[in-house]
Each structure stands twice: as C-alpha cells, then as structure tokens.
Amino acid sequence: MCGIVGYIGLPEKIAEHQALDVLLEGLRRLEYRGYDSAGVATVAGGTIEARKKSGKLANLIDEIEGAPLVPASLGIGHTRWATHGGPTDQNAHPHFGDDGRLAVIHNGIIENFAELKQKLSAAGHTFDSQTDTEVAAKLLGEAYQATGDLTEAMRQAVNELDGAFTLLAVHTEAPDRVVAARRNSPLVVGLGEGENFLGSDVSGFIDFTREAVELEQDQIVTITTGDVAIINFDGTPAEGKRFHINWDASAAEKGGYASFMEKEIHEQPKAVEDTLLGRTDASGKLTLDELRISPEELKRTSKIIVLACGTAAYAGTVAKYAIEHWTRIPVEVELAHEFRYRDPIIDETTLVVSISQSGETMDTLMAVRYAKEQGARTLSICNTNGSTIPRESDAVLYLHAGPEIAVASTKAFLAMITASYLLGLYLAQLRGQLFSGQISDILADLHKIPGKIQTILDGAEPIKALARGMAQTPSVLFLGRHVGFPVAMEGALKLKELAYIHAEGFAAGELKHGPIALIEEGQPVFVVVPSPRGRDSLHSKVVSNIQEVRARGAKTITVAEDGDDAVTEFSENVFFVPETQPLLMPLLTTVPLQIFACALATEKGYDVDQPRNLAKSVTVE
Ligand code: AGP
What is the pTM of this model? Predict the structure, then answer.
C-alpha cells in the first residue's frame, strides 16, 4: 500500500503553488499509507527532475532543501510501503524508462514482473533497482517509443501486466499531461480550476479541491490543466463517477472510517488478497521466490519452531494446525520471551519461523538471534519490509497487508495466518506431502476468503449493536477448539487491548478442568464453533461445552458456520460466517470478534487506535 500523488497546473498557478508544493502536501497526508521511502519527479523545460530518499518524508524534504528543484507545474510523488525490494534509495520511486525521459510511480504488486524483467533484460534493458515498478517503467518506455503517445503507451503497457497496480507517468515529451492507470488498486482524480490532481485517495489533494472523480477498474486517465479524459484498458471511452468530498482531512486519511482500527478491519479482504498475490507461477505452482533457503534445505526440516508474541503468537498457533496437517512436520509454537530460557532442542534441521508485524519486537528478535546461534535456519514472516528481524533471518516471507497504524493488530493477523498457510503448502509441495491438485484446491479456497470476509463486514451491524449493549460488561470469556482455540485467544486479547475489559480465552475442552468455576448467572461467553461438516467434527463436543456453561447461567454468543442451525437453540446471539475448509476458518471467525471489541471500546469512548499502556512495536525485552 503506497501513497501516490499527481499534479498538473497552468503556469500562472505557480504563483499560488508549484507542483512540488502540491506533491509534498499530498505525500504528507498520505504517509500513513507507507513510509519506507519517498520521492518526486517534476517536468520543466523539457527535462525531468527527480529526488528520492529512503525513510520518512522528512528525509526527502531535507534532500530537496539541499538540492532544490526548478519550479514546475507538472509532477508526480510517491511514499512507499515496500513489497518487492527493501526500503533503499535505489528502490524508492519514481523509476525511469525511455532513457530517463519517463518517470513512473506505482502502488500495488505486479505479479508477472519476473518474466517481464527477463524479456526486457534480453532486449538490453538494465535495472537499477529490485522493484517491479522499474520493470513497468521500462515496459512503458518501450511502448512510448513505439507510439509517441503517453496515453496509448500506458494502454499498451498495462495490457501486459498482471496483478494489482496504480501507475502514474510523466514524460518530457508530453509536458501537458499526467497519465495514470488502475487495476485492483485505488486512484481518484481531483478537479481544480486550471489544474487537476491524482491521488491514491482523496487525502492526496484534499487541501486543494473537494471535487473528485472516482475511477473504475481497468481504466486509464489523462489529466491536463483543463481536461480529464478516461478510457478503458481496451481503449473505449469511459466516464468516471464524480463526487464531492465531505470528509475533513483527518477522516480522509482514515478513508472515512472513525478510526484506523475500523479502517484496517475493513481492509482485511485486500490484505488477504494482496498477501496471496504473486505466489504462484504461470503453471499454478507455488513459488515463494523471496525465500532464501534452498528447497533442499527446506526438505531436510525435521521440526519447525514458531517464535512470536501476542497476536502474532496466536497466528502462529493457527499455523501449527495447518502446517502439521499438510506437511507432517512437528511444529512447536513458542512465546519468544520464554523460548531462549527453556534450553530448547535445536539443530541444523530445525526451521525457526518468526512471525512479526513490525519486525522490530525485541523479544522475538532476541529469540531469533538465539536460535541462529544454536544452528537453526531462520525464516521471518513479517509485514515490514527491511525491518530488523527479516534482515537478520536467513529467509523472509513478507505479508502485503500495508502499514498497520492502529496499535491493536487486525489485518496483519489475518495476513500472518495467510502467509503461514502459504509456507505450509509450499513445504508440502516441496516434500511431496500433498498432490498439486490438493494444493490448488486449498489455494482456490484461500482466494475465495476475501469475498467471504467482505460478506461478514457487510453484515456487521448486529455484532456492533450487541457490543454497544454490553459496554458495561465486567468480563467476557472466549472458548474455541482446534483452530478455533487461537481465535478465542485473539478475541480475548482484542477485548482486553481495546475495551480494557477482563477477557480470557480457553480451549473449550479445558473448561471442565477448572475455569468453569468462573461461570455464573449472566456471564457472557463467546464460543467459536467448528464446522459441523467433516468426519471427525469437533462440533458436537463444542455444542456440549456450550450446554455445560449455559446450564450454569452463561450468556452464550456463538460464531458459527452458515447453516449450522444446531447452535441457534443454545445461543443468546449467533453470528454466522460463510463456510470454508475447517483449517481456513480462522480467517473468517476472527472478524466478528474484532468488530465486537472495536464497537464495544468505541461505545465506551476509548481511543481504539492508541489504547492506553500499549505500543505498536515493543522494542524492549
Ligand atoms: C496485537 O494486537 C498487539 N498489539 C501485540 O500483541 C502484538 O501482536 C505483539 O506485540 C507482537 O508484535 P509484532 O507482530 O510487531 O511482533
């Protein structure tokens, strides 16, 4: 997820604001979309001037102060959340084509960039960065050479790209326009007087205009100082949807949601979808090309130890069930801060998988360092490109969830689980534990998950209403079995973190071994119910657990699979989620619990983005 801005204005506009002013203001507001690096390119006097710098936008501003740009009325700007290639100066956008006469910025993931890069290299192109964006820039440069028209060149280039992308381009020979294209990635147009704007979202230009046009899927837009022309990828003319921006700037950064927490809960379909993007080759075979551990070494893995903390540890627990089932490799899940003090058994056939959204959690980092000292191979599942833990690991599998701003993790949790599934399937593929047909069936079901999450989000109002009515609840228990157990733990953690309510998650089978003493009249108990389908369903056992607590006065709130009517009679409230394979259910059953915790905390008037006592990244042991 990156921040993108484009601008073109009449020369006389420079008295009000230069292109650079507009770009930097837009990037400042879009920095929440990514802050690994930032860059701008402007066109003036037949030349492109560009500045780009790793790190926060402030670094770019310092760079520009040291090397000012010529005043210009045309330009593009980018703030990056790295996917392909670490957060370095070279990988910062813009990237260039057509011998430096063309500048391109990009948000998204180009799935077929590797094969395109091969073709372009064979044609003599050289590359300065590791990014998929530079491949698009070279491709667009070739198309411009062939057509001499930036809009037509964009149209030809995007028809060769697979994946998710918003591309913006300027060319020295087309100083009257900015051309942009979007597929599976956001782009809006801002309408001005004698000037027009482009942005990943309206934050990019909200300080200059509140009149906007939304682009549809697979569309190209050409903005000049007096016109906005839209075509479809097939070249047919199109109309965008015009709208007035009612949000204030702060709401705009949150996409109109009341909080980043709510926004990120609603970004989960995209987070899962983007984490799945680009993971298979043309034949459909899983290719985790960023792993830097050889297939031979991975095949020798005798044991996997997952290291993580908090929510990431619950993602690791879900992973355990799936990876063990698919690969038959034993998986231990360890709280990182406990791991190195228990004298763990590690050798060179142990694969230590750390899971971390921030990649900076000191407990996890220290555990990874210890595991390396003991000879283990280390793999980082991480959301933050170039952070410490992946840098110190032998291999990395990046999430593509985009920056997670709210302290309490939501979309990164689902993305961690998704990435863990990919790792398990990849290991099973390498070791021949699953047939290719089985793997593709599971991948097909995974690709349906984003739509199923969206269904839950669309039907969230009853969950929010229940939460509002429970704002004074002093405590809530959460039960789950199998992969529902870590979901119950995560649901309890969300409620603790956001609403400061005592909440506890249990393995449902554990209740009768003591915790059931907690049950008294009216005690709210959430129960994550396994699918009733399947030979050895745990369903009947969990229904028994529900009856046990109800017999002692509990108020049971169940999360169950569509059509599971058996639980309705034992539930004060039941929230259904679409069905999927039992091992994939956590990607769905977690969502009602997140919505509940966020709504209850909001009802209590708490800051759900910055809860008391918490930090987004715990960089102390
Ligand atoms: C998640 O809601 C919490 N904020 C916390 O448990 C977090 O998951 C944990 O600190 C690990 O952080 P990491 O994923 O950045 O390593």
Answer: 0.85
